[in-house]
Design a protein that fits this description.
This is ABC transporter ATP-binding protein. It is a single chain. By secondary structure, this protein is α/β, with parallel strands linked by helices. The chain has ten helices and twelve strands. The protein has two domains: 220 residues, 3-Layer(aba) Sandwich (Rossmann fold); 68 residues, no CATH class. The two termini are 41 Å apart. A hairpin with a 2-residue loop joins strand 8 and strand 9.
Length: 297
Amino acid sequence: MLDVDGLRMRYGATDVLHDVTFQARQGEVLVLLGPNGAGKTTTIEILEGFRMRSDGRVEVLGTDPAHGDERWRARVGVVLQSWRDHAKWRVRQLLEYLGSYYADYSTARVERPWDADELIAAVGLTEHADKQIKMLSGGQRRRLDVAIGVVGRPELLFLDEPTAGLDPQARREFHDLVVRLAEEGATTILLTTHDLDEAEKLADRILILNGGRIIADGTAEELAHQIVGADEVRWTRDGRRFVQSTGESTRFVFDLFRQYGETVTDLEVRRASLEDTYLALVRQAEAAASPLEGAAR
């Protein structure tokens, strides 16, 4: 679905992307993380076909996005941080109007567009189908943004900071929707976010971009074990508090209970979080870059 090899982007004398390489398969939720200025937006815009790259090979649904035609675009969905539209449009009215542009790109395998009422039900807006957009809450509005992005039944969906500004309940509902789209629709999703809890919950795989380079690629669990390493086990026995770092927490806890039985209380296993991993990776990358920057100066 996505095949990126040696992607480079240069503005004047400044390289903002260096040899970026990754792939994504059908139905996968791929989360792109990185600090501000890491190159996330530039990468996404190149993949969407909105920005020309300087070098490297990029294939999106088997096509170079720099030369994607309307038929290719009909297979790609985009959900921006905010969507500009007329506040007086009604939910069903807008989706029917936008969906009409996809009718000519329906195929035997994928019927386009998504029926407006089915789509409204899928995103949980049935009760609001005849409401004007200006009357929707933030969470409802974000559901509509997703509906707009998938009305053409895309095979690949780009989500840019999808839950920015949402309250916890709306964020949870949005997460459920993203998972359902990937599982039921076999839609590949590439998502950018600064919310590490969100990334850990949604991602099948995580890419971390820093200084224009991919510095990590794997599941949250894989990255935690590779970078941070040991889990931390805490417990109490005979009124004393113990802490032990171990790479085999399950076996350690089993042996602990086998040896001490019910005298072990207040057991807690703390696995390395994605936040631990992310911060460790960014610090490593910045430390590695510092000597090079000093030599250049």
